[in-house]
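Two quick folds needed for the group meeting slides. Do the first one here.
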Amino acid sequence: MHKFGLCFVVFGALMLLGCETSSPSQGQKPRDGIWQGDELSFVYRDGQIESVDVHQSSCTGDDGCTRSFQEQILGQWVAWPSIRISEGLYDFDGQFSSMTLVSGAFRWGDPDSECCRAIGAWTAEWVAPLTASPEADAGSSSGPGSRSGSPSWQGASTGDLHPGPSNGPMPLAGSSDLAEHQRTAHEALLSLRAQVGAGEISQDASLAKAAQAHAEFFVMHHSQYKSSGLSPHDEDASFGVGFTGVKANQRMKAAGYDGVPGAEVMAFTGSATGAVQGWLETVYHRLPLIDPSVHAFGYGGQSQSGSACEVMDFSGRSPSGTDPVIVYPWPGQTGVPKSWSGNEGPQPPPPPNGYPSGPVITARVPNVSAWGAHQLLSSDGQEVAHVFLSAETDPNMKMFDSKSIAIYSHEPL
């Protein structure tokens, strides 16, 4: 199963890397949160590692056999003061050298082939949570999805169309009767939308109810989903207790939502922040998170017995003539991963040599109906071979958000 699922249904959060370099001690343990590297990423919390995501890996044997694989390893492992993970195909050892850096050795291989093994080194860095731009002025509202204030693009936007300004901190608007994990998801989403200038979004109690019920249903009936091959976005009444509707829009209505239902995105990471960060790395799943014409959502999450599920349900779009241009990653953003594994369902068109590709760049331009020439340039002005997706070239982009385009280089950067 893909780690992320979309129904107009869709995530990926790129984040700022921390810069502390002090060595950890008993009083200075590694920072809680997302840790990311080229070989693997994971969530570190209270001295334990969870939601380990092994990026696409390969091994080649003496007889020429070659295998590639990627996997999310569910479970928890003690990770302080050192890391030791042994599960299935994978063995990882590691040591934290600072509050924000860990490195070690890995061994992995195919149990069906004695020849196919891989041994190497790995590193990962702590990824700081997204925060609103400190220099941005909250200003006054100038229309749905926009806010007056000082742009924080630092001269990085040089074309004819420019991203809107970043926003200042935004309040947690919507239902006050929310669980901690729902508030955490809301804070992460507001922080992201503040940076890209997408405007405020409220958490609707009915959408949150629908999302939570579906997350619980998926986890409760995880084995039946696996054996039947049913899409994670659907429910089957024959599975048993907890059924609230076959499709996402039916579940939203059943929960009492009286607006127009929109997208549903799903992840299987074990945490709200992990889900939001993961959705942002993708092509399709990030789109509703940064859409300025979407003004309400609901979040639900559940973990139990080695299964985890996060669900975010969105309202339909309410476009405005003042919706800004939205670009992600934002110009000048740091800590952007060098590659992307293509781990998304539906999977976007792969580069000629397959995944991994470079990181995904998306732009949402509300008033452009067709695109002409496109270029991806390196820092020294050299053109970089890339995949270009728009409503004209990709049916999924047309279905999920015809106002958005995506670009990703053929090779990791």
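Then this one, please, same format:
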Amino acid sequence: MRTIKNIRLKLKKRFEENTKGFMTWLSGCTMLSNGNVLIADYHGSNVLMEYSKDGKHIRDIPCSNEPFDLTVIDTDRIAVTYGFWQYVDMLNLKNNAVEKKMKFDNNCYGISYQDDKLFISSEGIVITDITGKVLKTLKVNCGRYLESTIDRIYFTDNRDHTVHCISMTGEEIWVHKVESLVVPMGITVDDHQNVYVTDGYLNVLTVIQHDGKASKTLLTETDDLDKPSALHYNKDKDVLLLCNKKDSAALYHLE
């Protein structure tokens, strides 16, 4: 079991984004099975940006609107949220076609995929199957970002600066309040269930122990954090992808 006491991050690659438009918000990110990175710019030009693991811009993938967050379904498909536009697209990466559009009653922000289910931050946490059928809605104070694992859901609550871990049915497992977090944003979980959270106001990356009983700061402004927002952990490669809000991202190896 990896404990937070021993966790270190080693920078693998830092790269600048090929952003478009006057304003930028790198709001979502993920990693494909081939190691390529996908990044959403919520204030951009209706595209997802694809980069190699070495930071080379490969292509822009057209979207139906400004994408907020995204999650990998399989090697060919991703699901993309569109914030206040209140819908989710199932997007085929091979032909850029929208296979399914799922409409909701509220804004759709953070999204995560697990075991043929989508978990969406939308006035609580909405759980659907991959056709968009709503299976359950958890009435929790979920911020814009969430993450799911086999049997748990993790989310941040900006109102009281807390990070929550709940069961798939909504029962609270633990709540951790990090005094140093003012605006907790992006969240991801490693394969030991340690939780990583960005703070876009204080420019820090914090890790919370798998049982919610301890936390520590991993990165700060001195590590070139500048309004960090989106996070993604890839368990196959044991790397952490972090996006600063404006125009840069970095890949770190967990040690």
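Slide caption for protein two: The CA atoms of residues 118 and 132 lie 8 Å apart.
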